[in-house]
Amino acid sequence: MPATFVVVPVWQGSVSARAMSHADGAAAIQGDLPAAATVVVDVPVEAGEALDTGVHRYSTIRRVRERTEEALAGVTGLPITIGGDCGASLAAVAHASRATGGDLAVLWLDAHPDLNTPESSPSGAFGGMTLRAIAGDGAEGLALDEDSRVLPTRLVLGGIRAIDDEERRFIDEHAVQTLTVEDLSDPAAVVAAVEATGASNVFVHVDLDVLDPSALAGLSYPMPFGVEASALVALVRAVVERFPLAGAAIAGFAPASPDAAEDDLPTILRLVGALSAGAPRPGAD
User: Fold this and answer.
1) Contact present, 148 and 94 (Cβ < 8 Å)
2) Cα–Cα distance between 77 and 50 in angstroms, integer?
3) Tens of pLDDT along 153-170?
4) DSSP state string for 54-95
5) Which domains does the chain have, with CATH numbers?
6) Is residue 87 reached through a cis peptide bond, with omega within 30 degrees of 0 on the bond before it?
7) pLDDT band, very low/low/confident/very high, at 279 (cuts 50, 70, 90)
8) Quick one: angle between helices 258-276 and 229-242, nearest 10?
9) By the 8 A CB rule, do 181 and 224 touch?
10) At 183, is the pLDDT very low, low, confident or very high (cuts 50, 70, 90)?
11) Which of 1, 7, 2, 24 is nearest to 220 (CA)?
12) Burial tier of 27 (Cβ tally within 10 Å: 0-12, 13-18, 19+)
């Protein structure tokens, strides 16, 4: 069946000055998606409260997770989640993990590993804790449980260029596979890294800040020396050709204006096309 796009315009997981622009970015992408194959999650307008969790805006982020899970439960085709900030991937990965019986690798393409905990995070932003929550660590109601979490041995980080001390400790302690920006220019190297996890299925998360800022302007946390757009599209195509794609997410689009969004959309839509190629084809086994 073709892909179904689940639009999650969550911004509360970011503490950037452009945090709310993540909702604008999700809406801009949605405008170029087929309406009949698109579901939009209702994100509360209020910022939310931490509720002594150490997670900024926790109450709203938890509600968004619950609403996203409800939306995903009704999806029959390949779910491609459109953020919003990186927290949009939390429910999406949980859904993919359950759908595959835990036989899932997560390819996390991001300038940041997002492996902080509420205790280690310098900002309290959930966007910087999302992958750690996917691995089962974090605030109650956000950290995935044993039935849906993804073990560190099944994680592959690509393009990370800004790492906090606790994130480095976690990566080293669990021998999490990491791929440099240069590695991402070789699709075969990316495929080999996912193969090394031993998983049969893959979830691909793309925070657009994995790209070099010269390739995309609408980034809340632009990091220099990122991957080129053509290389990102090529590696995604290689991965979805090799592995069944159990789900995917695009996050981190925070355009400064509608006109600026229009300038960036061709690059993003190429990525959408590459991910959509992972949808099962009619008649395929």
Assistant:
1) yes
2) 35
3) 999 999 999 999 999 999
4) SSTTHHHHHHHHHHHHHHHHT--S-EEEEESSGGGHHHHHHH
5) 4-276 (3.40.800.10)
6) no
7) confident
8) 30
9) no
10) very high
11) 24
12) middle
Residue with tokens 């759908």: 99
Q: Are 83 and 250 in contact (CB under 8 A)?
A: yes
Q: Cα–Cα distance between 253 and 270 in angstroms, integer? A: 14
What is the per-residue pLDDT for 259? 94
Q: How far is Cα 151 from Cα 32, in angstroms, rounded to an integer?
A: 35
In the chain, count H helices and then E strands: 9, 8
**What confidence tens digit (pLDDT) does each residue in 213-235 have?**
999 999 988 999 999 999 999 99
Q: Are 86 and 50 in contact (CB under 8 A)?
A: no
3-class SS at 119?
coil
Residue among 42, 62, 104 nearest 247 (CA): 104
Give the residue among 235, 252, 232, 251 at the shortest CA–CA distance from 243.
235
